[in-house]
Structure formats: structure tokens, C-alpha cells
Specification:
- The chain has 13 helices and 8 strands.
- By secondary structure, the chain is α/β, with parallel strands linked by helices.
- The protein has a single domain, classed as TIM Barrel, CATH 3.20.20.330.
- It starts with 8 loop residues before the first helix and ends in a 5-residue tail after the last helix.
Length: about 350
Amino acid sequence: MGDGERRGLLARLEAGSVICAEGYLFELERRGYLQAGAFVPEVVLEAPKAVKELHREFLNAGSDVIEAFTYYAHREKLRLIGREGDLERINRQAIRLAQEVAAEGDALVAGNICNTNAYLPGDRESAKAVRAMFEEQIGWAAEAGVDMLIAETISFLGEAEIAIDVMRQTSLPTVVTFAIHKNGLLRDGATPARAARRIAELGADVVGLNCIRGPETMMVHLRAVRRAVSGYVAALPVPYRTTRREPTFESLTDPQRPEAPFPVALDPFTCSRYEIADFARQALDMDVRYLGVCCGAGPHHIRAMAEALGRRPPASRYSPDMSKHYALGDDAALRQAYRDYAVDL
């Protein structure tokens, strides 16, 4: 391999783990560049510097994949907000921004498609519309020279079957991940394990789960998926403390507040970096090699995941070192009076 060549997705997975930072919607909404509710990535056109900076922060924290911010940049969503005419421009710009940042490091660029919110099981017209949306986005991504394709947050096996069929029209590596709601099944009745096995049989290079569920409630389904398929498996939970009683971040309730926490008041449920690191280690122990964090992720979560996998990304230069904290540290140069006061902090 020459100095200017990058390893592709499959070579990296063969050698070890791959990290993909997702969750741009939530983070850019928190930063004031995107509206919760519609969650359409207009920011790609309106504040491209903000998108590039977030890509750059995730790269610095250890992400191996820069995913073009085309989640919900499909015809169905853009029609909803009256911007269908910007469809191609948003997709092409998002890919260009991802490529510019990926070139700053050793990252792969991923084209992205997602749940369309238009698919209806058994409805030929909806299937036709979904296929057309996927063909548009994948066509632009392939033309732009992306390194891989991701279909994410898919809740219908039928929709995933359309996605992988369109993706396989290219020669690019493919990742397909399912989002599992409260009842633990896809919306057309398949178990996550059966759905993953089916999509792997149809040619997906990586299959697994993303979004909706936090580390604790994703794990049971992840184990089932890992048992069901022989190839590469993906796991990208949301960084929220979902529980057996409230297994998805949409279902969380806050006893301190009357409002539903999802999507803009999830702060009290946020996982610590330690929890994300624990999840990464457990997943890798199961030979789940394609890892990341979805909606709600911050760069510190990605850094924690990278470090849990034995890496030291550039951001590790600033990983916590409490030895020099003015009261909690143990450095001999610290004033003893302040160290003694630590018990009263």
C-alpha cells in the first residue's frame, strides 16, 4: 500500500475495529443550527462551517468514518418543509463537506441514506417511492466518490431490503443498521436477528443496530444479531440511560418534569463517558467491530469509545488527568491545605 492510499472499510474491519460517529442532528440542534421536530439538515447549506467543525471534532476524537450529513435529506422530508428544490444541493454539499474534513486525517467518507417515513408494508406505491429516494441519494454519493455507503435507522425489514438492493448496484462497501422500538421487533414483525441475517444474505457487508436504544437496552438484541450472522456486526446506541421499562429514548419519562424528555430534554438521562467505554469493550468482546454512538453523541463519547478500544486519538492529549486538580489531585506540588479540604467539597 502506497503512502497516499487509505485502507478501505473491509480491510480495517479485518484488522480490528472501526468507529463511526453519528448523531449530527442532535448535536447541531444543541448548538443552535437545526430545528428539533422536523430535524432536516438545512444547516448543510446555511451553516456549512458548523457542519465541518463537528466533523472535525469527531475526527479528532477518533472517528474512522466521516458520514455525510444527509440523514433526512431525502425528498419526503424536504417536501415537508417546502425545500424539495434544494434536495440535490444539500446532498452534494454534505458529501463535499465530509470529504474535505476526511482529507485532514485517515478517515473514510460514507454516503448515507436512512428511514424515509414513507414506507408502508405491502404497498407497492410506497416501495416505489422509497426506491426512487434511495436511488437519488446513492447516485449522488457514488458519483462524488464516497468510500462506503450506510443505510441507518431502518425500522422495516422491507425498507432495508430496498436499501440494500439499491446500494448493491454500486461496488461500494455497505453498512445497514436497524432501529428497534419498544416492542423489540421491526415494524413489519421481524426480529432484529432475523432481519440482520436476511440483509446479510442479500449482500450487506456489515449489519447491526443503531439509534433509538441506549447501551443497556441495545445489548440484548445485539447479542442475538451477533449469534445470527457470521459477518461483521455494527452497534451504535444513543448515549442515554434507557431501561427495561423504558427501552427507547422516545419512551423515557422524567419524574421531575411534566414534559416528555424526547427529543430536547434528555439531558438528565445522558450516559457518562465511562458507560460508553464499557459498552464498547463489551461489544468488541463479542466481536462486534463496527462501533459508534448515535443521536446525542458528543466528541467526548467518541473519544471514550476510542480509548476503550485501545487507541489514543489526537483528542486524548486532553483526556482527564485528575492528579493535578487543586483539591482532588495527588501531585506533591499541590498545597496540602487545599488537598485536605477535598472531603468538604
